[in-house]
């Protein structure tokens, strides 16, 4: 699936990924390829991304790679839309 993580200042990620896990207000949930369409409000936490992609050099200080191999993008909140194998996170 394709994932875009966008903040008011810049695009944090725009890449093909295997999965994405987000901090929804009702709890953390994961999306894989062919996930049903969804719109969700996100709370403070991490957008966890699994995939084989390059992190732009200007973002390496902002994101961390966990022991499970997933990249963790910190967010203060936001909104997620998933449809047609494309997830867009509008993050604060």
TrEMBL record:
Its main location: membrane. It is a peripheral membrane protein. Residues 1-92 form the ATP synthase F1 complex delta/epsilon subunit N-terminal domain. Keywords: ATP synthesis, CF(1), Ion transport, Membrane, Transport. It is found in: Endomembrane system. It comes from the Bacteria. Belongs to the ATPase epsilon chain family. Produces ATP from ADP in the presence of a proton gradient across the membrane. This is ATP synthase F1 complex delta/epsilon subunit N-terminal domain-containing protein.
């Amino acid at each position: 699936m394709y994932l875009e993580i966008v903040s008011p200042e810049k695009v944090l990620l725009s890449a093909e990924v295997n999965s994405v896990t987000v901090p929804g207000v009702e709890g953390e949930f994961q999306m894989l390829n062919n996930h049903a369409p969804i719109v969700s409000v996100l709370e403070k936490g991490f957008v966890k991304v699994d995939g084989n992609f390059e992190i732009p050099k200007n973002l390496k200080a902002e994101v961390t790679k966990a022991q499970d191999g997933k990249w963790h993008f910190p967010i203060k909140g936001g909104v997620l839309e998933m449809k047609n194998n494309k997830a867009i996170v509008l993050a604060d």
